[in-house]
Amino acid sequence: MIAQTPPPPYYAVVFTSLRSDIDNGYSSMAMYMEELAREQPGFLGVESSRDEAVGITVSYCDSLESIKAWKANMQHTVAQERGRAEWYTGYKTRICKVERDYEF
Amino acid sequence: MIAQTPPPPYYAVVFTSLRSDIDNGYSSMAMYMEELAREQPGFLGVESSRDEAVGITVSYCDSLESIKAWKANMQHTVAQERGRAEWYTGYKTRICKVERDYEF
Q: Per the UniProt record, which residue ranges are transmembrane (chains A, B) (predicted)?
C-alpha cells in the first residue's frame, strides 16, 4: 500500500478531493481507474487514502509525458467529467517532481 | 480541507504511512504536529486523509529551506521517533516540487 518507487527523480500526481454524499458507482469506478493507471506506460505506483470528507490519491509516473498521456486517456476523461458532476464537491490536482524520498 | 496554495512552483511533502493498531495518543499528537506546522515559516497548507490502513498527509511549503527547518524541529523529531516505534508499521516521505496545479 506504500508504492515501491525507484530512486528519484520521478513524478507524482497528487489528487485531493472533497467527497459529496453520493456514492453511486464511485467505488467501482475508482478501482477501474486504478486498473487503467497500472496499464499506462511509465506507471510506477499509486497510494490512496479516503475518509468521510477527504480523499487523497497519489499516482507515480516516470515522466511528464506519461502524465500527459494519462490525462488524454478517454476513459479517464469520462470518469473525470462524471466525478465533477456527481462524486466530488471539489478537487485539486498537483503535478509534482519527486526530488528526494526516505522511508522506514 | 483542500489547501489554498499560491500559483506554482512551491514544495510538497507527501507522507504516506501504514498504521499500526495502536492509537495511544496518536490523534492528539497528529493535531499538535499540524499546529506546529502551521507556525513554521514558509508553511502554505496541509491536506490529510486517513482510513483504517493508510494515512496520507501532504504539507505544502514555499521552499526546500522551510522543509529542512521543519525536519530539524525538535518536537517534530520527537513525534517522528515515537511514530516509528508505536504508531506506524511503515512510512515513506517524498519531497516534491509542485510544477503545476488545477482545480474544480
A: none
